[in-house]
Amino acid sequence: MDLITGFFADVGSNLSLGFGQAFTLDNLFYCFVGVLLGTAIGVLPGLGPIATIALLLPITFKLDPISALIMLSGIYYGAQYGGSTTAILINLPGETSSVVTAIDGHQMAKKGKAGLALFTSAVGSFFAGTVATFLIVGFAPILAAAALKFSPADYFSLMVMGFVAAVVLAQGSLLKALAMIVLGLLIAMVGPSESGQPRFTFDNSQFFDGFDFVALSMGIFGIGEIIRNLEDEEQRQAIKSRFLDLIPTKAELKEMIPPILRGTTVGSVLGILPGGGAVLGAFAAYSLEKRISKTPHEFGKGKLAGVAAPESANNSGAQISFIPMLTLGIPSNPVMALMLGALIIHRIVPGPTLVTDKPDLFWGVVTSMWIGNFMLLVLNLPLIGMWVKFLTIPYRLLFPGIVTICCIGVYSVSNNPFDVHTMAACGVVGYVLYKLECEPAPLLLGFVIGRLMEQYFVRAMQLSFGDATIFVRDPISLSLLLVSAVALVLVLLPSIRKKREEAFAE
Amino acid sequence: MSSTTSRRTNPVDIIVALIGAAMFGLVLYLRSIEVSWYPVLLLVAAYLVFAYLFFRRQGGFGGVANPKDFYTGIVLLAVCGVFAAGMFDLPLGRVARPGVAFFPLMLLVLLFIFAVAILLSGLRNRGEALGPVPWRGLFIITGITVFFGATIKGLGFVPAIFVTGFVSCLASQKWTALSATTTAIVLTIFSWLIFIWGLGLPIALCGSWLRTALVALGVAGESIPFCY
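Predict the joint structure of the above. Result:
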C-alpha cells in the first residue's frame, strides 16, 4: 500500500515540477511558436520533420536550454503532424513513421475524406500524446533502469526484431524486403567507422562523412516520387476532395476509438525500444489492425483504422522515444539525433543522471510535450481546411515547388552542394526501386540504424570474446530473436503467406 | 500493380536463402582464429555451386521470366561488387575483436545471398514487364537537381531557384512558357520569403560567379546589394 501511495506521490511531484516549468508565459509562448512553425514548414511538401527541425534548429540557440528544448519538441510535434498531413494529402511521407499513414490516409483523401483523415490523425496523436506523457511521468525512472540492464547483444537482437517486423509488414516479396534492409545497412557503413577510419569512400573526400540522411530520404521519397508520378500525370491531377466532412459522424467516431486505443498501446510498448520506436510502432499497429480486422481487404483502400492506429502509435512511440534519448543518450531515430545535437550545443549531456541532476529540465520537457500536443489540436483542427486546399493545386504546378524546396532544404542542412547531388542520385535510386517493386521503407530503416547496430554487434562480440552464441545464451536476446524467428516462420507458412498476399494485393 | 505472380516468393528461393544464411553462420563460428578472406570466398563459391545445382534440379533456367526480380538481382550484385571492391584494404580483425570490415562483410555476404536468390527467382517465376519509363521527366528532374547543387554557390539563390523552378516545369508533358515563367517567379518569391526572410538561411541571393561577371561587365560596382 505504501508502495502505491509513494508511487502516486512521485508522479504528483514530478508532474507539478514539470508543469511549474512549462506553464511559465515564456515557455508557453515558445511551445506555441514551435508548434506553429513546425506545422507550417512541415506541411510544405518535401520537407519532413527532420528537414524542418534542422531548418529551425538555429532559432533556438539563443534561448535558455529548457525553453530551447521545449520549443524544439513543439517544432517536432508540429513537423510530425505536418508530415502526416503531406502523407495524407499528396502521398509524400515526411519520415519513415508516416509512411504507414500514407497507405490508407492518401486513399481516404482520394475518396474525398481528407478532412476526416486529418481529424483522425490529430485526435489520435493528441490522445496518444496524453497517454504517453503520463506513462513517461510514471515510469521513466523504472523504464530507464530496465533499459540500462540491456546488454549490447540484447540491443542487437532488438534491432533484428525491428527489422523482422518491418519485413513482415512490407509489401511484396519478403526476399526483396530483406535485401533492402541489408542494402540500407550497407549504405550506412559508408563514411567514418567508429575508430575514425574511412570506409567505402574510394578516397573521395565527399564520402568521408557518409551519406546525409536528409538527402537520402528526400531523394528517395521526394525526387523519386516525382519521377514516378510523371509516369501517369493524368491520374494525379484527377484528385478532387470535399472539404466539409471534417467533423466525423457518430459511426466514424465509434470506428476510430478502438484503433486509437490499440495504436497508443502498441506505440507506447515499442516506443521504449531504441532503434526506431515510432517507426516500428506505426508499422506494428497497422499490421495489428489488419490482422484483427474483420475486413482486412479494405486496408490499403482508405480504411479509417489504417490511419487512426499508426498515427496514435507513431505519436506515443515518438514521445516515449525521448526516454532512451534523455536517459541513455541513445537517439532512437534521426529526429532524436538532432535533438541530442541541440542539447549538446546547450552543454547538456544526456545520460542516466539527467533525471536526478536536472529534474526541472527533464520534467519540464515531458510536460511541455503534452502542452505541445494540446496546442497542436487547438491550432490544427481549425486550420485543416487550409491544409486540405493543397489538394486543389494541380500536380504540374506542385512538383516544381517540391523540387525547389527539396533542393533548398537539403542544401541548407550543411550548405554542401554534394548533399544536393546525393539527393539527385537517390531520386534515381528511388525510382529504380519503385520500377523493380522493391520497398524503399526497409532500406531507410536499415540506413538509420546501421551504425548503431554495428556498434552493438562489435561490443557484444568483444564482451563475449568472439563467442557468437552470446546472442542465444542471453535470455533477453534469445527471446527477442525467438520472437523474430517465429514471426518470420509464420509469414513463410504457406497458408498465412497466401493470406498476406491477399491482404497486400490491391 | 495487379500482378500477384511477381509477388509470390517461391519456397525454393527461401530454402536456398536459408541454406545460404546457415552457411554464412558458419563464418561466425570460426572462433578465435584470424578471419581471412579465404573461408569467405570458399563459402561464396560453395554457395554459388550449390545454388546452381539446386536450380538445375528444379527445372533449370528458362530465360528472364520476371524482369523485375531479375534486374533487382543484377543491381544488387553490382552493389555487392562495389562494396567488395571498397573492402579489400580494410582490416577484418578477429571475431573477438571485429575490425572495421567485419560487420560490412557480414552484410555483404547476406546481400549477396539475397541477390542470387532474387536473381534466380527472376529466371524461374513469371512476372510482368518493367513498363514505360518517363525519360523526359527523369532526365529533367535529375538534371535540374544536379544543376541546383552545382550552381547554388556560383549563381546564388535567386537565379538558381528561378532556373530550377522554370526547368522543372518542363518535366510535365503539358507545360507552357507562360505557366512555367509564372511558376518560376512565384516560387522564387515564396522561397525567398520562407527561407531567406523567414528562416534567415545564409545563402547569397546572387552568387560569386554572377558578381564577378557583373563587375567585369561594368554593370555594377564592387558592392552590389545582396551579393556576397
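Helices of chain B lie at 11-28, 37-57, 67-85, 102-124, 135-151, 157-169, 177-198, 208-217.
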